[in-house]
Amino acid sequence: MRKYVPKILLWLFVINLGIAFGAGIYESRVVIPPWENIPPQTWPQAGVLFWVYVTTVPLTLLTLANLLAAWLEQGPRRRWWLGAAAISAVERIATFSYFIPTMVWLQGTEGLSEAEVQAALSQWLLLDYGRHVLTLAAWVAALKALSLPDKHGG
Length: 154
Hints:
The two termini are 14 Å apart. The radius of gyration is 18 Å and the shape is elongated. α2 runs antiparallel to α3 and α3 runs antiparallel to α4 (114-147). The protein is mostly helical. It contains four helices and no strands. It has one domain (2-147).
C-alpha cells in the first residue's frame, strides 16, 4: 500500500491543480469584473464558500505533501514533480501573502473611495493573471511527471 501513496498524491495534485486553474480563470473573467461597479461590502461571499474547501486548504496540503513525495522520489519523474510542487508553493505563498489579505481588506473597508476600490481591484485582477500562469505551469509539470514512470517503473 505504501508504494501507492506517492502516485495517489500526484494524481490528487494534478486533479486539484486543474480545478484551481479552471476555477481561477472563471473567477477572474466572469465573477470578479462586475464587482468594480458595486461597493465591496455587497460583494458575494462565494469565493470563501468555494475556495476554502476546493483549493485554499486542499491545494496547500497537497502542495506540501507533493513537495515531500517528490523530494523522496528517485525515478525519472522527480524533476518534473519537484518543479510542479515548487511552482505551486510559490503560488500558494503569493495567495496567502497578497491575494487573500487584499481581498479581505477590500471587503472590509468602508472608508475607501470608489476610485480606490476600483484601482485596488484592477491591480488584484492584473496580478491574478500571474497566479494563473503559475498554476498552469505547475499543472503542466505535474501532468508531465504523471506521464513518466516512477522508480518502480509504473
